Amino acid sequence: MTKSEKAGEIRRILEELYPAVPIPLQHKDAYTLLVAVLLSAQCTDERVNKITPALFDKADNPFDMVKMTPEEIEEIIRSCGLSKNKSQAIYNLSKMLIEKHEGHVPDNYKDLEALPGVGHKTASVVMSQAFGYPAFPVDTHIHRLAYRWGLSTGKNVVKTEADLKRIFPEDSWNKLHLQIIYFGREYCPARGHDPESCPICSVYGRKSLVKKG
């Protein structure tokens, strides 16, 4: 079986398991999604979704956000990891959005990645989920599974993203990256994973991952 054929079978399984995939982070527009994704670094989506209602109740746009101090923002998001750095980034990016983009979140990678605290993965999520542009954001779930399934070498997330974009059709990226995330959480966790019982690893995983016997 070629890598392309394997990818097609994996996509078929994911489509059967997750025909509809909601966006994990609660948001109402590009700005609230951007802030939520920034908060999700080293923090679970579940925790972020518990934090953001209180934050967005006070400021769900950059103009209101900069009326607060970074310390006030930090107090609200404290239960999420790296709260000091994240609160400063949220304040600074909100200020930059006002000064350079009239308060609007830009819909291109160059301007998004120029914002404080925003890397390529965060920009990819916003481009995909807020603006509908084809993107394949690679988080730890996707990076891990792409290696387990033999679709990428696992050297780094940049290589994984390039490999997956080459293997899967562009019109599948926005849905597929979410399907892989949900699959990773439910069937293919980082710890305590049993490849033999995994719907994908048991058939299409690297041979070294599946026990012999």
Concise description?
It is built from twelve helices and no strands.
- Assigned CATH architecture of the largest domain: Orthogonal Bundle
Please indicate the count of domains.
2
| Distinct helical segment count | 12
Low-confidence stretches: none
The SS-based structural class is: mainly alpha
What is the overall pLDDT average? Answer: 92
Backbone shape: elongated
Q: What is the beta-strand fraction?
A: under 5%
Report how far the terminal alpha carbons are from each other: 23 Å
For the report, how would you describe the main beta sheet? none
Compressed to H and E, one letter per element, the order equals HHHHHHHHHHHH
Mind telling me the C-alpha Rg?
19 Å
CATH superfamily assignment of the largest domain? Hypothetical protein, domain 2
